[in-house]
Amino acid sequence: EVDEFDAGRVEILKGPASIAYGSDAIAGVIQLLSEEPPSKGKMAAEWLSEYQTNNGLAGNSFHFAGNANVVAGDLVAERVQVLGTSYDYNKIKDMEFVQGRYFTPAENNNAQAVALVGASVAESLFPGRTQIEGEQIKVKGVKLTVIGVLKKEGSDLFGFTLDNNVIVPFSFMSMFVNMNGENDPLIAVVPKKGIPMEELRY
Q: Taking the complete model, does pTM exceed 0.85, yes or no?
């Protein structure tokens, strides 16, 4: 399964490439590469939108991302990707929880200091702990309450994973991160199955 929103670029190598990619690469290779995470001190913005005409489902999500150290007590998880997302992000990106839950509309709209943590972050900050929901973490010195712990998922075909992420409401992230940078949002639109990309042009 491919998560189309995680693709940064696609590289196509024509011709035999068995030496580099193994015996199955007898005619060529299509390599799917994920987006590079923002470098230290940089932020990245993205707008995601999806609509399915067969069942009327729609999802729109805006998120802002950057790397930061996350602290819990004396322990530090370094270079964690911090995502500030709109409420509909879970309609765009599937998430499974081992503890807790997703944001409520009130938490998202009122800039509540709550967070979802990926499995790797939880293991780094709370080693050996089975109950993490309700604990406090710090991002850039700001305290957040953990309301959900994501199931460990590993990397997908693009190398993307939420395991090393902390997700907060976008409204909260905008309170302590300067959004007036040089980053341009990306709009991603996905057609329903069977509809060619050409029909999305207008």
A: no
